[in-house]
Amino acid sequence: xxxxxxxxxxxxxxxxRFGGVKAVEDVDFRLEExxxxxxxxxxxxxxxxxxxxxxxxYQPTSGTVLLRGRDVTRAPTHAIARQGVGIKTQVPxxxxxxxxxxxxxxxxxxxxxxxxxxxxxxxAIERLSLKAIGGxxxxxxxxxxxxxxELAMVVTSRxxxxxxxxxxxxxxxxxxxxxxxLIQELNRxxxxxxxxxxxxxxxxxxxxxxxxxxxxxxxxxxAETIMRDPRVGEIYLGKRNLLS
Amino acid sequence: MAIAAxxxxxxxxxxxxxxxxxxxxxxxxxVMNFAHGELLMLGAYSVQFANAYGVNxxxxxxxxxxxxxxxxxxxxxxxxxxxxxxxxxxxxxxxWGLSLFITGLVTMVFGNVTRGLSTPLGSFEIGGIRDSxxxxxxxxxxxxxxxxxxxxxRHTRVGLIARATMDNPRQVGVMGINPxxxxxxxxxxxxxxxxxxxxxxxxxxxxxxxxxxAYIGKAFITVICGGDAIFAGTASAAVLFGLINQTTTxxxxxxxxxxxxxxxxxxxxxILPSGLSSLFSRRAV
Amino acid sequence: MESINRRTLLRAASGTxxxxxAPAILTRRAGAADAIxxxxxxxxxxxxxxxxxxxxxxxxxAVEEINAAGGVLGRQLNLNAFDTGSNMQNYAQFAxxxxxxxxxxxxxxxxxxxxxxxxxxxFARSKTLYFYDTFYEGGVCDKNAFVMAETPAQMIGPAIKxxxxxxxxxxxxxxxxxYNYGYICSTWLEKLAAENGAELVAKEFFPLDVTDFSATIxxxxxAKPDLVVSGLVGGNHIGFYRQWPAAGMLGKIPLxxxxxxxxxxxxxxxxxxxxxxxxxxxxxxxxxxxxKAFLDKWAAKFGADHPEIGTLAVCSYNAVNIWKQAVExxxxxxxxxxxxALETGISFDGPxxxxxxxxxxxxxxxxxxxxxxxxxxxxxxxxNTDVPPLDTxxxxxxxxxxxxxxxxxx
Amino acid sequence: xxxxxxxxxxxxxxLAGAAVIVALPSFIGYDTILQITLNFAFAILALSLGFVWxxxxxxxxxxxxxxxxxxxxxxxxxxxxxxxTPAILxxxxxxxxxxxxxxxxxxxxxxxxxxxxxxxxxxxxxxYKFMGQTAKPSYMIGNAMLGGYNGIPAIPPLNVPGRPDLFxxxxxxxxxxxxxxxxxxxxLRVLLAxxxxxxxxxxxxxELRMELLGFDTRFYKLVAFVIAAAIAGLGGVxxxxxxxxxxPHVFGLGFSAQPIIWVMIGGLGxxxxxxxxxxxxxxxxxxxxxxxxxxxxxxxxxxxxxxxxLVPQGIIPTLRKFWTDRRPARxxxxxxxxxREASSHG
Lengths: 244, 285, 410, 346
Fold this sequence. Notes:
Chain C is α/β, with parallel strands linked by helices.
């Protein structure tokens, strides 16, 4: 039974170490229903590791993860997905040999049966504006289109929470804009956690930002306050400038 | 008791010895060489024939067999393995085909008869019990080979290149070394070590075309269960499985020895899915 | 030691050419219309070929001789010999082929016990007379089948009696291949030893793929027996005969081997097996005019440099001749009449001495010899005549109960 | 291009196939009947590997072991019951149960595919060693002696349920084995078209994505593994029937290699390919066995190595590709569809 009034997602003291290296340490994190939150931080800050602790691609070495108050710390990836969490990884994980529609059908099979499968597919195609390419095989699509198909696959299960790992990586400027619009569309039904680098993008979508640094939560706030915070600029923007 | 200890050491050493060439090829090239047993067999045939034609047994064993099988290894790498890098399953299948082919060829040319040569070195006696001195040779050669490989990998330029290849094959090209040569050389060394192992085992058993089948399973299990640190892993797996096998054989009978070895391997993989060496090492040597 | 010479290589090369012509060879149908079709199934290739080859050759020699002398009942014999390649699948297939396509009236063959048990029911069902000519664990009791080879009682019985007496044996250490043959022989040996006042201090069984015997060699030294009996079998177990002398044990404790013919002897150096004893119906070194004549014929057909032959060849050769006598006695090829004729106790004086059909068991009463290896030769050190298959006759009586087709286990 | 619905397609294959199988024994010789019956048993084994390897992406060395277990289980049960009907069931269920335990051990530990291959190999070798040392009279299952290296002879043939006196001769056996192979083929086609098939293929293509979508891939791998083991067991039942004999060589390395060779040569990721591979190679083995000049292993090994190097996809996918390449490409998707069909419909 879910606790009444519990946040959608909560972590208490989550940590992940690889051998002697502490990639994530003592992270307390809360996300309410319907919220949209971006995780940022320089490379190696632990945000992607934290993301994988949530999806159980990594098993956290300490702490607890709660979904609507239910302890899912030891639950495997598929069980997390089954509890209404849609996950999109950094590298597109799609089925290249299948068409867009077949990809969506396969995804919808996870949660629906019979006619509901087609309905879920239609709806996802509609919401992510994929109608024009519905019959194309994935290996013929552009990088951006493949990302959107994966988003659509995530949507077919009508998740309460969607986790996105760098959804705009490698996209053109126009594609990034479209993706921002899609994310806001998805946010109408679901809460989202987005791991991102692109500050422009974050400013265009985010209501809340959590900054990671050296495996810990460094700062919390709205996009505007975080971007104005000089300490963040020091650890994050400085590095980013080096990279770009 | 002393005899039992020597026999256990001997089993460990034999296991390590027959697995060493496979470990080189699998560890450095990620090639599953299923013709490993046949390379052992070719080593045994080399020593057998060289000796029959009057070559001194030690020269036949330590020079002729590794050279012959090493050359065959070069041939195999050039003709088959070369075209399959990065496709581990395909190397496994192609070398499986090769193993059938080599068995068939040897059967046709030399006939399906067991040959053999007498075990050299005579015997020793401890506490009224006699045993073959050849066991000391096996134990000694195995230790020497592992020490030599460790030294080469740690302290020479060749070793550095080899370790770099294990780490990241694509980067070797950047170092100005033709990766093709590294692969050919690696496969040749692996084959030569296998040929030597086959030659050393030959005087203990019969030499026949299908003898490889008796070793391939054990060698594979030893290497795979060793895990990522390929040489230390293979050595420790050989020690563990040798102990299990020979202790069971001494206490019960040989019929249980190998079954115990295999069951031990199964259990070990369940407890340590990334191999024995994950217990003590994160390095790739 | 066989050497690779130009001929071997040529043979391999011409093989390549032959396989291209294979379809033509395979579809060839030989033999005159009135010939008597007979079949042979032996492993001329594969792991059992060291036994099967000489059996196949012996049947061919016997058939050739008979044909040269005018055949049987005035008809030539047409031999359909298949190489079963040491593969049980081939046995079933070729046996069916002999029965249905070739319409063979008699089949000689089967090398291992397993192969015999695959084909025996096929011939029983199709009422095709069947001869099995390999020494084996005994106990087959089948109206349709005749076994013209040694059972444990014949191989081990007289030899063990002689050894116990001559060497004053009290304690025997035994080792066996871990399969049917080993288990049944060990039981039989235990009984024989007890009758002669000795006891078995160990019965160890080794899977056929074991190659390392060092633990056992240590155990034997601990047990300090007066005699070691080995029932080890096959290419891997040869390892024992190499590791025993390597451990310095040769001559320290007498070693008797139940399965040790020229096939095994040729794989080892004379100094590795000096003094070892063994016992069969036949060795090539038997000194008799019959054997000399036989060896001359064998050399004429297969070359003077043929590998040393053993009891398997002679048993196979005898079987064909015993069948021939039965056909001549009856005057036709009717199976039931032939069985009746064989049960009258037909006997044949072969190269290894007399072999007589035992009506009750369909086995043979035969002479046996014991040999000791000296300088790499089997030197005959004991001879026995008319040794009965006591193990099988204790359980099997096909005269009293003819409708049987089973193998008794002790 | 209009596509024939799967149901009609399969119905037609079933009818035509059954008609040919029933009619064939009247037209071919006794030898050929026996050879093809054996091929049918092998085809079932090949299908089991073709499914679990080609569609579920699990490289199992152990299919021959399940085949052997099926044969042994059938043999022991048939000898004890004297009636083949429950024995068939046991011959299918025992390997399935064994696969369930082994698969749980392997897949729920999330061992990587190379370890799955090695573990199935090790288990096969254990069975080989174990069965090889069951010559002691104490290894009896009821009235059936396991017999060690000599195996179990005189296995009772299939009979009409409840009537052990009415048993199948070679011609009936041909029809039974043929129809069983056909049924397995059709069953697998149906299964692959159904939800389970889609999930299993999705898992082969992208295991992580399937997990992220909420599929428990451990469970589906286990299901595919167990189904394949049951099918292999059924093949083993047919095999044990065919020569009324089974021995431990079915657990040997050489025998275990065979289905892998068949699937590889026929075509991985198809169902017709493995059947074809089994038929071609098993026939080739027998015919080569009757000549002595060239060792059969030499030819098989050569053929196999050359295939891996030159035709790595196998016969069927290569033919399909050849066929689609030759057709004029009116619709840009036609080629893509056809080659996809090769990879997922069989």
